[in-house]
């Protein structure tokens, strides 16, 4: 008895130590598992075409993910860093030499052009005093930007690491599925297969919802860019798809709208601003919940609470984790309610 207790304590200690060692990689492992699961039909098709060579199929799909996702994200990260450095240099130059001459299109602005020119020169004359007043806050703003930049860089690194780890999920996917089923069977018994299908279906619908919504936003953004005459519309549409996966599509259509105003195309600028806010960004609130709830037995309110609550509680990873947790809990409670009630023991007659 004492030996069994020591063995269990040792096993718990080893399990805790293993989880502690793996803690820095949980997010990357989670993303690798989600991406591998979402693209598993493609993995099976490619394995069949390559004559059953799973390692080769896994390597090709991993390379495809790196080209489609990792390289654009790295390019976007370096581009943002370059823009931040340019912004810092611009602020330093403004402190020394003041504002440049007002652009010609500012004077041509209907009704308020002269007033804008006056504000421009007034701001230029008061620039030194303004920077002196803002100087105590610029350090705090710099620290805030630096912290957000480090967080963004960490997120990009985790995603790139997950694209490396996805190779092992592809190659060993069947063994990992069998291992997960055995663990679940030991925990909940014969209902393991039901909950395996439940978790798999929920993750599949969430992935379809996220990717489907990002594709729809990219297409709508492309239509808006083509109508407004924004150059490089197809490239911007592809970048919108990437930013939609990160849930920030305004990072693309917002600067494009500003560019139209700077070029004097006010009509198209207003159109793209309205199109971006109500159509490109607005479709996320309609299409994503529909795609996630479609084909499942979960009420829509459970899906919405899972998506929104997961995002607020766990960040972007909660977009997948929240609906899965609520789906499992909802089905556990449903099974408990539908299970036959335990028969009560018959009453016993007590002697007087």
UniProtKB/TrEMBL annotation:
Topology relative to the membrane: Multi-pass membrane protein
Compartment(s): Cell membrane
GO cellular component: plasma membrane
Main location: membrane
Transmembrane spans: 28-46, 58-78, 152-170, 206-227, 233-253, 265-283, 303-333
Family: Belongs to the autoinducer-2 exporter (AI-2E) (TC 2.A.86) family.
Protein name, UniProt field: Permease
Organism (species): Pseudomonas knackmussii (strain DSM 6978 / CCUG 54928 / LMG 23759 / B13)
Lineage: Bacteria, Pseudomonadati, Pseudomonadota, Gammaproteobacteria, Pseudomonadales
């Amino acid at each position: 008895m004492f030996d069994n207790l020591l063995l269990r304590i040792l096993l718990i200690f080893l399990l805790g130590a293993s989880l502690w060692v793996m803690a820095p990689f949980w997010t990357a492992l989670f993303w690798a598992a989600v991406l591998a699961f979402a693209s598993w039909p493609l993995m099976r098709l490619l394995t069949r075409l390559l004559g059953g060579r799973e390692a080769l199929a896994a390597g090709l799909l991993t390379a495809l993910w790196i080209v489609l996702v990792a390289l654009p994200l790295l390019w976007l990260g370096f581009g943002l860093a370059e823009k931040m450095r340019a912004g810092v240099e611009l602020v330093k130059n403004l402190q020394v030499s003041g504002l440049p001459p007002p652009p010609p299109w500012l004077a041509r602005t209907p009704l308020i052009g002269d007033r804008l020119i006056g504000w421009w020169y007034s701001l230029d004359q008061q620039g030194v005093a303004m920077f002196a007043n803002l100087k105590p806050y610029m350090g705090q703003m710099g620290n805030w930007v630096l912290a957000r930049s480090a967080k963004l860089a960490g997120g990009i690194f985790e995603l790139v690491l997950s694209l490396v780890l996805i190779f092992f999920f592809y190659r060993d996917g069947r063994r990992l599925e069998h291992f997960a089923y055995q663990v679940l069977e030991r925990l909940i018994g014969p209902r393991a297969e039901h909950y395996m299908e439940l978790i798999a279906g929920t993750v599949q619908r969430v992935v379809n919802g996220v990717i489907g919504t990002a594709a729809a936003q990219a297409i709508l953004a492309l239509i808006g860019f083509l109508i407004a005459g924004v150059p490089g519309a197809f490239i911007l549409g592809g970048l919108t798809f990437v930013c939609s996966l990160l849930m920030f599509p305004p990072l693309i259509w917002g600067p494009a709208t500003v560019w139209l105003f700077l070029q004097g195309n006010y009509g198209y600028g207003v159109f793209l601003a309205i199109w971006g806010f109500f159509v490109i960004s607005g479709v996320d609130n309609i299409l994503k919940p529909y795609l996630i709830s479609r084909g499942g037995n979960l009420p829509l309110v459970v899906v919405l609470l899972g998506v929104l609550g997961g995002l607020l509680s766990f960040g972007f990873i909660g977009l997948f984790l929240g609906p899965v947790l609520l789906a499992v809990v909802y089905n556990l409670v449903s099974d408990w309610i539908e299970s036959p009630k335990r028969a009560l023991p018959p009453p016993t007659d007590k002697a007087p």
